[in-house]
Amino acid sequence: MAELLYVIVTVLVVFGALALITVRAELFMRDVEDILTYCSVALILGVMFWVVAEVIGRYVFNSPLPGHLEGAELLLPMMVFFGVSYVQARDGHVGMTFVVDALPKKVRRVTDILSLIVSALTCAALAYFSSKTAWLAWIYDDVTMTPPYWPVWPSAAVIPLGYGMLAVRMELQILQKLMPNRFPPPIVELSDLHVTE
């Protein structure tokens, strides 16, 4: 229970700090999200070429690449969590808005803020607890079960990074709803998921 209180206090402190530097924080987050998304795209292309090379090596030269399956599995969290905040900033996540769409705009704005608060707290908690798992993987020098024995910690460390950035992005979206004049133009101007009025 103490750890959850720690997460809640941290979220509130970060929220207060973001409220003081709204424009700089928003522009910084946009830059970081863009860079991590490019990294995700590069990883996707790299894994694609790696799998093609493995298939060619296995079936053409009868010489499969060792550790390709575990390596590709360890890169999957990086591909996903590098881009998750970028997608949130652009309202790209799948959402079920059937009931919310029927509400008046002012009520929708309140429901957006409440859902962002709950989501930010959830993502912050997931970031905290997954960082503990990543730390243990680092301490124990956890590796895959087959050669070449890939280290597990880089893949585990990306998960708290992604959840942490997602929590910060949601906090920025809350601030944007509360004080829209202090933000640069939104990335997504018209969206069914986020009502500005």
Written account of the structure:
With 197 residues, the protein is mainly alpha-helical. The chain has one domain (2-182). It is built from seven helices and no strands. It has helices at residues 2-20, 22-59, 68-81, 84-89, 98-101, 105-139, 153-178. Helix 1 crosses helix 6 (105-139), helix 2 runs antiparallel to helix 7 and helix 6 (105-139) runs antiparallel to helix 7. The protein is elongated. The mean pLDDT is 90.
A few lines on this structure:
With 197 residues, this protein is mostly helical.
Write the layout of secondary structure elements.
Layout: H1 2-20, H2 22-59, H3 68-81, H4 84-89, H5 98-101, H6 105-139, H7 153-178
Primary descriptors:
single chain, 197 residues, mainly alpha
Report how far apart the termini are.
37 Å
Indicate the radius of gyration in whole angstroms. Answer: 20 Å
pLDDT average, as an integer? 90
Helices and strands, in order, run as HHHHHHH
